[in-house]
From TrEMBL:
UniProt cross-references to SUPFAM superfamilies, sorted A to Z: Class II aaRS and biotin synthetases, Nucleic acid-binding proteins
Catalytic activity: tRNA(Asn) + L-asparagine + ATP = L-asparaginyl-tRNA(Asn) + AMP + diphosphate + H(+)
Main location: cytoplasm
Protein name in the entry: Asparagine--tRNA ligase
One Pfam family matching this protein: tRNA-synt_2
Any one annotated GO CC term: cytoplasm
UniProt keyword list: Aminoacyl-tRNA synthetase, ATP-binding, Cytoplasm, Ligase, Nucleotide-binding, Protein biosynthesis
Domain Aminoacyl-transfer RNA synthetases class-II family profile: 134-432
The family this protein is said to belong to: Belongs to the class-II aminoacyl-tRNA synthetase family.
InterPro entries documented for this protein: Aa-tRNA-synt_II, aa-tRNA-synth_II, aa-tRNA-synth_II/BPL/LPL, Asn-tRNA-ligase, Asp/Asn-tRNA-synth_IIb, NA-bd_OB-fold, NA-bd_OB_tRNA
């Protein structure tokens, strides 16, 4: 029996006869030879069909097959030093499994809206393949990192009654005879987890009814939210930079082929594996922006252009520390000696990518936290359980949230978050 393999394992089968289930992405042929561009979901490579080595029927099939036809192939693996991949298959037999006619995504250029309308098919193309493989490596590395650091994964609910990040961006839904919101952050539940298990992380979808149409916003995205008991902000910043450096190193170690497919220079990524990352205060950031010609004032939130500018001033990701209270959520710990700032930080990714992490030390005092909730005009009855965490053995604790698609977009050097997630949800897109 011929061994069935996946294309990525071709290197272990040089000069062997193998069988592969694959799809055709492109082809060209002349009278005596046909070149089939093939993919099987694990990699892309070329099949060579020589007229004088196969039956007339097989050669005819190879010449007539159309884009995205699926097939079983048998043939012999050879080295191919001219390709990215390094191997090809000399095809001996082809058994068509599913025909394909008029595949909408052809090798020519297509507009972005057309591609997004055909996202269910677009996912098959080389660049999208590479991005999703890198995403998968980052999922794997996330679990590895937090497991090795002694965190347990905890899954917060998605249907909730509370609004940790402010009430303007909530998706509301009927929940029997009451209202529920789709979770915009698992943080408050992660805090309960930290008090129960010391170190926890969440990793799941969150929802924000963002009206903004920027390249940095999705309405459904994935967040990783670690939360640590007995931990001050300085230690949390260390975890953050070690985690980001670990993600980048994992992609460098395990996705060399995919980085090549999307033309991402590994030498640039290597810079980000060195820690510590630089830190500046928000106060300083405002000065830098003003020197750079922005008319930003102390107290303003930093928008995409401001974050882009700041992140371009550094070779590495940069922490911006201690923002004004007025532009951050209620649960943060006020900074000692200042009455207008919190102990918090955003991590801005380099190359102009802007905020990828938001985090802080949390308020631990029952009365102060209660007052902060009231000051934001939030419904106290939704936060009674959260306030309980400050009643029974409250401890200093800190945590953060990494926007997973923002991190992928930066690591892959994409223009827009929409390519970092299999099926993006945006203000004007709910399909496919
Ligand atoms: O800064 P945010 O709003 O922080 C929180 O939700 C905290 N509860 C996190 C915590 O301390 N546990 O969101 C965290 C990150 C941002 O830094 C950004 O990377 C990403 O989530 N993010 C988005 N990503 C895609 N689309 C959006 N609309 C996003 N909004 C935030
Ligand atoms: Mg933020």
């Amino acid at each position: 029996m011929t061994q069935e393999i996946r294309i990525k394992d071709a290197k272990d089968h040089v000069n062997e006869e193998v069988r592969i289930g694959a799809w055709l992405t492109d082809k060209r042929s002349s009278g005596k030879i046909a070149f089939l561009q093939l993919r099987d979901g694990s990699a892309f490579f070329q099949g060579v069909v020589l007229k004088n080595k196969v039956s007339e029927e097989v050669f005819q099939t190879a010449k007539e097959m159309r884009q995205e036809t699926s097939m079983w192939l048998t043939g012999e693996i050879h080295e191919d030093s001219r390709s990215h991949f390094g191997y090809e298959i000399e095809v001996h037999d082809i058994e068509v499994v599913g025909e394909s006619e008029d595949y909408p995504i052809t090798p020519k250029e297509h507009g972005i809206e057309f591609l997004l309308d055909h996202r269910h098919l677009w996912l098959r193309s080389k660049r999208q393949f590479a991005i999703q493989q890198i995403r998968n490596e980052m999922v794997r590395a996330t679990y590895e990192f937090f497991n090795k650091e002694g965190f347990i994964k905890m899954d917060p609910p998605i249907l909730t009654g509370s609004a940790p990040e402010g009430t303007t961006e909530l998706f509301e839904t009927d929940y029997f005879d009451q209202k529920a919101y789709l979770s915009q952050s698992g943080q408050l539940y992660a805090e309960a987890g930290a008090m129960a298990y010391g170190k926890v992380f969440t990793f799941g979808p969150v929802f924000r009814a963002e009206k903004s149409k920027t390249r940095r916003h999705l309405t459904e995205f994935w967040m990783i939210e670690p939360e640590m008991a007995f931990t001050h902000q300085a230690e949390s910043l260390k975890v953050q930079e070690n985690y980001i450096a670990f993600l980048v190193q994992s992609v460098l170690d395990n996705c060399a082929y995919e980085l090549k497919l999307i033309d991402r220079d590994p030498e640039i990524l290597k810079r980000y594996t060195k820690t510590p990352y630089p830190q500046i205060r928000y106060d300083k950031a405002i000065e830098m922006l003003q020197e750079g010609g922005f008319d930003t004032k102390w107290g303003d939130d930093l928008g995409s252009p401001e974050e882009t500018y700041l992140s371009e001033q550094f070779e590495q990701p940069v922490f911006v520390l201690n923002y004004p209270k007025a532009i951050k959520p209620f649960y943060m710990l006020p900074e000692e000696g200042r009455d207008d700032t919190y102990v918090c930080a955003d991590l801005l990714a380099p190359e102009g990518y802007g905020e990828i992490i938001g985090g802080s030390e949390r308020e631990t005092d029952y009365d102060k936290l209660k007052a902060a909730i009231e000051a934001k005009g939030l419904d106290l009855s939704e936060y009674e359980w959260y306030l309980d965490l400050r009643k029974y053995g409250s401890v200093p604790h800190s945590g953060f949230g990494l926007g997973f698609e923002r991190a992928i977009t930066w690591i892959c050097h994409l223009d827009h978050l929409r390519e970092s997630i299999p099926f993006p949800r945006m203000i004007n897109r709910l399909k496919p």
